[in-house]
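Entry 14. Ran structure prediction on the chain below.
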Amino acid sequence: MPKVQLKSALSSLREPGDIADDLIAQLGGSEIPRLVTVFSSLPCDNAALNRAIRERLPEDTRIIGATTAGEIDRDGYHRKTVQMCSLSGDFEVGVGLGRGLSKDAMGAGLVAVAHACRELGIMPTDLDPRSNVGVVIDDGSQNKKEELLLGMMERNQSMTLVGGGAMAQGIEQCRKAALDFTAWLGSTPDFVPLFTPELDIVVWTVRSATASEASQKAKDFFDRAAQHDIHLALASFPQAMVEPCGAIGEWDTSHVTCLRSCLMKPEHLTWLPQIIERLEQARVVAGVSGMHSQELMRK
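Output, C-alpha cells:
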C-alpha cells in the first residue's frame, strides 16, 4: 500500500552550517526524503543556509521554503527559528516557479503549474485531484493572491491547491465583504459571479447573448461605476473558466472581459452597503431593473 511519512524539526541555532546539521540530525531515519520544506524567521544568511541544507541532502531531494514571521508546529508558535519538514514515500515532486506577480499574477500562476507538470511528465489538463495536489508558496501582495490561484487553475479547475502566503489582519472581514458582495451580484438579473471567493477578490461577468457582447458590457459598466466613484478592474478570462457559470449564450471569442473587485480592507465590510447602492445606481442607469441594494441588505 502506498505511504507517505512526514517528519519535522526545529532549530534556534545561529550559524547556517550548525542549523543544517541540527535539523537533519533531528529528522534522522534511513529513508531518503522526496520533498523538504524550510521556513525561517531567524535573522541569518538565508542564502548560506539554503546552500548548507542542499549540500547535506541527497541530490534527488527537492527543497522549497520561504522566510516567515514565525513558524507553527504541533508544539505551538515559534519565532527566530528555522523549521524543516521532510516528506518521504510513494510520490513524485514537480517544482514550478512563477515570476512577476505584481505585473501578471495570473500568468505567473499559469507558468508555475506548467513547469511543475513538465517535471512530472504530465499535462496540466490531466492533473487528477485524487492523486495530485499543488502546494503554493507566494510572496505577492494580498490583492494578487486570487489572481495567482486563478492562473494556476486556468487549465484544470479541479486541481487541489493548499498553502499560500502571509495574510493581512482582518482577513475574516474582507472575506465576509467579498461573500456579501457576491450574494448581491447573484441577486441581480445581469451579473453572474464566476466563483465563490476564497479571500477578498470577486470576479463576475455580464449575462449576454455572446462573449463579445459580455466584454463590451463589462467595459461599459466599468466606466459607469467610475462615474459613481466606484473604481473596479477589468480582467480577461478564457472560455473554460467562464462557461460553467452559464452567463453567456454563444462563444464567438475564446476569452471574455470580466469585472473584478478586491475588497482588501476590513473597512470594506462597513462600506459595502454604500458600495452596492452606488453600483446599483450605475446598473439601473443602463435600464436594467432588479433588486435594489437596500432591499437586499434588509433580507
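The longest strand covers residues 4-11. Will compare against last week's run tomorrow.
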